[in-house]
Fold this sequence. Notes:
The radius of gyration is 21 Å and the shape is elongated. The strands form 3 sheets. A 5-stranded mixed beta sheet has the order 2-9-8-4-5, with no helix packed on it. A 4-stranded antiparallel beta sheet has the order 1-3-7-6, with no helix packed on it. It has a two-stranded antiparallel ribbon with strand order 10-11. It is about 5% helix and about 45% strand. By secondary structure, it is mostly beta strands.
Amino acid sequence: xxxxxxxxxxxxxxxxxxxxVSGETVLITGENIDTSLVGNDRVxxxxxxxxxxxTGKVSADGKTVTITPPPGTLPGKTxxxxxxxxxxxxxxxxxxxxxxTAPKIIKIVPTKGGNGTKLVIKGEDFLLPxxxxxxxx
Length: 137
């Protein structure tokens, strides 16, 4: 079997939350990607050591495959690895980014209050708190 060769990634980055949450996919274009008539069990694709989900099948000519990236652990550069069934592999740089969202506030309760009143803000697409940042920073 010939060695796989990753030529390009479209996109070479993904949201740190992973493609299942963000809806992102990555198209891998290359050569000698193992194909299978019944599934994709002849190739494994990992990003930062975590297995990606193959969307559909490897193309019949072994030149393209689309994946859903797994969640990352930290923003920054890492490696995407394509491993064929015989253990031959290639890798290419990949990057996880902390994507800023467009949050939407739906409701604030209570609508009135004095100094020290605690609020509940309900909405969509909020980021999780970053415990490394202090309010007084």
